[in-house]
What does this fold into?
Amino acid sequence: MSEFFTLSVLIATFASAVRLAVPYLLAALGETIGQRSGVLNLGVDGVMLLSAFGAYYTVIETGSHLLGVGVGLLIGLFMGVVYAVVTVHLHAKQGISGIGIFLFGLGFSDLLSQELVGAIQPIKKLPSLAKLPFVGGIFEPLEDIKYIGELLFSHNLMTYVAFALVPIVTWMMNRTTFGLNIKAVGENPQAADSLGVSVERTRFFAILIGNTLAGLAGATLSLQLGVFQQNLTNGLGFIAVALVYFGAWRAKWVMAGAMLYGLVTATRLQWQARDIIPNSASDLAAMTPALITILALVLLAKRVRGPAALTKPFTRH
Amino acid sequence: MSELMPLLEMRNITKRFPGVLANDNVSFDVLPGEVHTLLGENGAGKSTLMKILFGLYLPDEGEILLRGAPTQISSPISAIEQRVGMVHQHFMLVPTLTVAENVALGLSSNRGIRTDLDTVSKRIMDISEHYGLAVDPGVEIWKMSVGERQRVEIIKALYRDAELLVLDEPTAVLTPQEVDDLFVILRKMTSQGTGIVFISHKLHEVLELSDRITVLRNGRVSGATTPAETNRQQLAEMMVGREVKLAPDKPALDRGKVRLQLNNVHVLGDRDTMAVNGVDLAVHAGEIVGIAGISGNGQRELAETIAGLRPAEAGSSVSIDGVDISRANPAQTRRAGLSYVAEERMKDGAVGEFDISENLLLINHGEKRFIRGGLFNFDAIKQHCQRLVENFNVKTPSLSTPISSLSGGNIQKVIMARELDSDPKVVLAAQPTRGVDIGAAEYIHSQLIEQRTRGCAILMISEDLDEILGLADRIAVMFEGQVVTIIDRPEATKEQLGLAMTGAL
Ligand SMILES: Nc1ncnc2c1ncn2[C@@H]1O[C@H](COP(=O)(O)OP(=O)(O)OP(=O)(O)O)[C@@H](O)[C@H]1O
Ligand SMILES: [Mg+2]
It folds into this structure.
């Protein structure tokens, strides 16, 4: 145990926690935006799987991470259009539609992976900033700074994108007309409608952004791991949905939740690698964040209230 | 006035809903600078007509002219663009947002994609100064009283330069003082040329404010008049189509034994402060005790505690016929003989998605007479419900109509029918006729009086002083969680009650 509490191991654990948190963070931020507009998306996990495979396959075929991430993003966007049309324009029940998207993503990504790739085939993982072409030189010396370098400058680009999105989403929600519209249609769509705010359009774009971020989350996951396999996410998308509640629909608290998951996972991996806990206990350890989330949800349940119109379709006539 | 071009003309408007003809060939106009009142029973079609004007419904037939020119109003945006503003029957505000954010919704900002709340706040201040509409642009709606929320609704319309303002029952939830303040503001607006459509069930308000009055009945215009030519009695009859007793007949009775006894009742409110702070009150058989007071002074919490919906603090005692119910749950309070007509009809009084029979059976579906061989006896249920609907004169297409699609007054009749059918010992009625039309209110009052004659003890909470003075034998005034005074009806005056309600007595 004592060998875990050395500065270098702690730093390494924390640095990997930051990276592990990224898929949670991206997906949960996306879900936050969707939910604030009043739309619950339980399909996050399915969208992530499709994007994860799309990104992975693109890298196999082209060798380009950038293209891989781009394909993951586009798949998210496309699934967003599907989900938005089904729930907003066709007024389908959100809960069951989301489950449908999840099941589709789970099955279809597996099918594609068997047909197009076959046996698991590792690809090169997302590189850290220092290894990027052109700009890598700038970051090389930074990454070498003792401790600080590993903590702050050793990550891949998607990590910075994800954490940069936290203040951007906060700004969007609190300072822009679009954010104001999102909050209004999520709380009282009738009121927004009576002032000429298009409930359908606002929700449509909120869902689009949400699913696009889920797509980025999926792409980041498979490219960080360098593999794709059946059900790669293992429920990560559902945890992202729970994190939205955990974070009380606020970007910074959602980030705190994602970091908690990253930290617990990173610690577990470290302990396992160092034989601090037996393998048999690691499943128990893997449950800790879920337990913490449940506990937090129970404690918070009375204090915070979600968007009042969450899951309620809107019609005027 | 006759040569003025009307601001609004609605010609021969017809609107059908499944099974209902909500507007039948209705024509209606508004001149600049006048208040034109729409009067009618619940379900007469007032809100429907105004929603057509605001682009929320499309008419099946008929045309609309604004400032003399025919126009199509296909959505709220086009209504706003043509300077029509509407204060809806139910608040259209986002409670979690501030006043400025609510006003800014749907406006284009001159800061690009960023909101420009400073500019909006500044204009709100200008408007509120100009019309005497005191509000703070930075406060969230949920922190405001209903009177303040009403002002925000009006500011929303003024901000958009409304020249024609529709107010659908704006006074239903206001205190008398707030109504006076509102009328001052409305008069200021008409003096500057704004045309106003006013809807209210309170006839004295209608007579006080209106220039013209149009009465709707069953979707059709049944008459038009002016305050100078008419009076309350006549208006009520035009609405209902028969003779109406405005002041209920109440037989003189000697009150009997104490049925409902409250001793030292303390109750915590939602904000963890003492909402009810030591109430002692006894209600006797054969009497109606009215609780008057401005809302928010503990009436709601007191009612919820008696009904078993909110726990009382230790040391409080509530009993019916000597049976203690201070720790009872709602089922136990009912078994002790309580009937409860909740203030929030759709939240605590009825299940919106359930149909009328299901709502009528909510509290007694377990009784033997409705069950045969372990299953519901639908014949018996139908007979029972049919009788209640007929006795209470509920207007509905059928027993299987979802209750949420009835008008407010008819929903209240269904609830009353259910609550009074069980021969209660104590009736607790909160705001029994809020938003309910004259005809239905008369009926509900007569039913309460009948229960009184039966020997029931009735505790009625109301913000409507006319209702309290018309019905109560004794009046308890609540202020800041306490009963500050109890007055026998013969000694009570409106002025005295008004003073007590503000804590000045
Ligand atoms: N969206 C709707 N769908 C079906 N029926 C409706 C709808 N809106 C109103 N109605 C029906 O149309 C009739 C007129 O309703 P409306 O709301 O216009 O009455 P109102 O005069 O405003 O009554 P109140 O005084 O209770 O507000 C009622 O019978 C009502 O049940
Ligand atoms: Mg109405």
